[in-house]
Amino acid sequence: MLRLMISVVTLSAAMVLVGCGGGSNNTSSDNGPGTDQGAELADVLIGDVESETGRDTVSNDSADQGIDTAGDGTTIPDGDDDTKPADVTGDFSAVDAGTDVQHNDVAAGDALPDVSTPCLEGDPCDDGNACSYGEKCSAAGQCVGGTTYACDDGRVCTTDTCDGKGNCLYVVKSDACLVNGVCRTSGETDPENTCMGCDPGTDQGAFVQANDSADCDPSASLPKCKISLGGTCTAGVCVTGPTGDNPCDDKNTCTQDSCDLETGLCVHLGSTGQPCVLEDRCKAGTCNQGRCIIPVDASCDDDNPCTRDSCDPANGCLHENQSDVSCDDNNACTVDDTCFAGSCQGMVLNCDDGNICTLDGCNAITACWHDVASNPCCEGGVSKCDDNNPCTNDDCTADGLGCINTANTAACNDGNPCTLNDSCLDKFCSGVEKNCNDGNSCTLDKCEAGKCIHTPLNAVPCDDGRDCSTGDQCTLGQCVADTTLCDVCTYTFFPTADKLVAMTISPDGLTGATPADLNHGLNLDDNASTCAPSSSCCCGIDNSLGMVAGLQIATDAITKAIVDGDLIMLFEHRGLRTDGGPYTLAFYTGKLDPANAACDYQNSDCQYFVSEAVFADWPKCNPLVSLDNAKIVGNRLTAGGKSYKFPFDLPLAGIPLHVDLYNTKVDATVEVTGGKITRMRGILGGAIPKQQIIDAINAIDPWTITQIDKETVLALIGEGDDGLVYPDLDADGDGVRESASIGIQFDSIDSTITGVF
Questions:
Q1: Bridge partner list, 685
Q2: CA end-to-end span of the chain, whole Å?
Q3: Which candidate, 520, 488, 517, places its Cα nearest to that of 505?
Q4: Could you tell me the residue range of the domain that residue 2 belongs to?
């Protein structure tokens, strides 16, 4: 026990006095004759154990010669029996372990060296900082100087250390990879090949095979101008399925689309003259240099009397060909014009007057013409052999002395005003009955005195041409039917949709704290010099309403509603395109499809029903809330702008307020896999008339929010320019700012829309 106490005391003293790590290595600098540098505390052998056997070789006795007091070889026993010699000369050449280490006598088995005086000026030393090197002892025995360096490679996936010699060690953490200088988390896929990923247990320096049998996008491996419906990961490679030519269809009927075989890029050449339609499929227009121009009075009337024109909201204008219907082809050289398979055709007008003394012809505008012919049988345009029968050609014999009267097919008049194109046949005049069919099955058509008469019919079965109608019957000359079934929408949903899993409204109009964070709003007025709220905003970001909507009570209520499944909102990509061309981004409220009622709606691709109310654009059955100018360039999706607005249920302080969102914009980053958007993260922004917010809050009765009363909410919002919320945008374009801007940050995952409720 006594020896243990001595060891502890000695260790404590060493920790106080050794100012320079490692001490001095000079073995010839004794303080004086026969005196060790450790003499100030005496040479103490520590860590010796009594079980050691043998004698000191200097004194050759059984006592330990462990304390050199004079440097002349005389020692004082320390009470043990060592087999190693003590330092008996003071020159540090002998220690218990046989070696003088840093001026301290250390015996074999000693736990710590003897404590010496501070290091000597100029000697190398160690200040205990692993990130410094080259230190030296000062005149005061202090370890100073040296070069300090830092080891930080700026990567979150490495542990950075210094080796004390001016070098850095960067060790990749066990749960990460460092591929081509970029940190990757475990399971993260290669951005250029989703079939390869980070697996720290296999290789921390490279992507390895991953996601076998998973869907992937094989586009990068396809030849130019080829497309595939999808691929499958196989042994680290995206193996494509069936391929085909890229049609490069930009959904614009006014362009001629093709793919450049050299560059693989789509080419869209504008065309002129072709019929076209835009959003309203019941209003036809004409292409002009790649743009569809819709006249103000546009309709489905194709100006063809031989088609029955109607409109199907889902498919657009319909033109049913008609036959046996009277028409006018606007050609004076035809008569009894009648529709045949959608085309107006007439009989060729007979301009033969049966007179051999005239040359006959027809002009499409002026009809028949007759010029005087040069004929020896004629005098003044009249034949010498005229028998006054228009159905004979009156000619002379060769010698001019006799007459020849032969039957002809000349035009004539049979005396019946209800016949047309009367012509001679076997010297008899007859015509073709005039066609008075007006194409309306609910009129009785006949000719009287050369005029067509159309008498309306009643209580006669008919067909209005619509498969969805029932009980078709003539009423006052019109075909009337029950169209109740025709008023039912046939809903069409597209395969790509996203369900919002998070919504946040910030109380300011600032940018994110780091590059990975979202901005807290959008530049809704396209003016980088303005922002809101004025007390905390920058960079053109508009979010005036965030001062109230971004209160903690509001954001907590939104989060709870989403997590609890009480608030389900979805984006639908109608006709999704990823080549920068436009498509429609629709916005719905919904609920889980009963077929997958237990689906994890916050993490999985679930099926949803959407509210039938958003299809009130009846009978077109198109969604009311949509932005038709959505486009994706790279991984960025943008949609909307100043001319867009839609009704919106604003979650303000936990209350769904039904308002109109003007200047609607969406700006998001997207992840596209297998032709679908699997993740969308961005901001939905717009402007809401402040008075509309106040009116919506006042209309809530009863007030069911217990955390805050209605009066407090109204006081926070304020009237006019007062309160936390102030109008910062002119949404209606009258030059007066009446609306408050808002930015709603969102995160969404892949989903599927299957029906309505």
A1: 665, 743
A2: 87
A3: 520
A4: 1-144
